[in-house]
Request: fold
Amino acid sequence: MSSEIDNIRNFAIIAHIDHGKSTIADRIIHSCGGLTEREMKAQVLDSMDIERERGITIKAQTVKLNYKAKDGKEYVLNIIDTPGHVDFSYEVSRSLYACEGSILIVDSTQGVEAQTLANVYQALDINHEIVPVLNKVDLPASDLDKTKKQIEDVIGIDTENAIACSGKTGEGIDNILEQIITSLPAPKGESSSDLKCLLVDSWYDTYLGVVILVRVIDGKLSKNMKIKMMSTNQEYIVEKVGVFTPKPIDINELSTGEIGFITTGIKVLSETKVGDTICDAIKPLKEALPGFKPSKPVVFCGLFPVDSSEYQKLKDGLAKLQLNDASFSFEPESSSALGLGFRCGFLGLLHLEIVTERLEREFDVNLLTTTPGVVYKVHLNNESILDLQNPSSLPDPTLIKMIEEPWIKATIITPDQYLGSIIKMCQDKRGIQTNLTYSGNRAVVNYELPLNEVVFDFNDRLKSMTSGYASFDYEIIEHREGDLVKLGILVNSEPVDALAMMIHKDFAQKTGKEVCEKLKDLIPRHNFMIPLQAAIGGKIIARETIKGFKKDVLTKIHGGGATDRKRKLLEKQKKGKARSKQFGRVEIPQEAFIGVLKINKEK
Reply:
């Protein structure tokens, strides 16, 4: 093994949201001379506008830096800056696979939070060495001893060598770099072996086609080499090899232990499966690397253009977004109330929000989103199982044996004064408490909850009831049988597919009543009476009525005795109303759909 590989350190930066990952990455890049003073900007690795505006990282980014240590040796540092949000945890998992160690950043004013735990456990699962860093020591609220004790109590990592630093002032950055050299292991691998590479990530570039981020495990990857993707058995010629410093720089080859990018003229992202193994086409490997589980969408909702003429624009926008985000899926669907649109799958609500915001901003489409829902497993009497994404396509109840819904394991970390209200909210949402521990005055509570109850507003309510101090993280565990029903909404005896929802039987009546009341306020009056009904199967469980306009047809008749003529006119009006009720279409305005979505959020 060459001495060069001993001088490489590959590490990920992991932390909860807003604990300073991207800022510390900026400082490390600056102190290693990756960019000049003029080229530096805040969050240099967050390339999307939306990342910079919201101050969050969505895509993991990599940088190769050269560092001269105090012992006089030159080292190569490969950093991966990872997202902190639960919706993008699959980005974190694949970034960790490409590294041997992690820097764990904990905000010394906030302490350990839910996402800190989730990310550290992922790193420990794959035997990472971890360097704890306590950030934001320049703030008056910083409490190092308390934070160290929390890390030891909650996570169980020794904090004797924890480094105090400030991403803002740059204090302690040199200590982090020295600790990386001494504490983190060099990559293992044989440079003389046949090529073995892990495909870490891929994205679409307008000029280069698909750019593939790789970690070389054994052998060398060089320009003009013929490579093979093991999952698809396709062969390609490497056109370009490079590294990010953070600017992309072309090189001739990537050697064992290095992280860099290649392009091969691939035009479609689906040909590059994340976690795939790349090998030499002339000397293929017998066994692929274990790779990682593909990310599966967990939240589904319909996206419809407000103006139906923008359908093609929306379709093009979705296709372009999918080029850079393989974790999001869409298929066409049509709704009698909303027209043509798409059923889209997301990894969570933040992912949904980011995608819809990018569609509106980058492709200038006005969108209407239907109620987000989860994937149910419907077991039919004939032993077959359906994956149900859209409540309106639920089969006849007589054919159904049972319906299973996804459950999650949630970890909530909160100051203990808010614990009572959090436990009450979790119980209202059918939660089962599995664990409760304390570290100082903060409680760590674990719940098992149905995902359906969490997708709407759980995080928003949690933040508002705890003044933003609680943090929440979840992972999907399994599908369990639930007493679920399809709540249908009928307007003028016609079912409105866009308002149908799957709901637990206990909450159906209350929700049906609320939806009908809300629609009564939002649908304008017509010339005829409109009944609004909420139904489960053929049974109506709630009803409201929008009264029709009544025109006074009797004003033209003078004199007292013309009762026959009055009766005839009233009969004629009645027939006209009956006919218009039979043939008249009730126009449901967009505000009505948005209003019903808001009910679910407010509940």
Remarks:
- Confidence is low (pLDDT under 50) at residues 42-48, 50-58.
- The two ends are 62 Å apart (CA to CA).
- Residues 563-583 form the longest helix (21 residues).
- The longest strand covers residues 400-415.
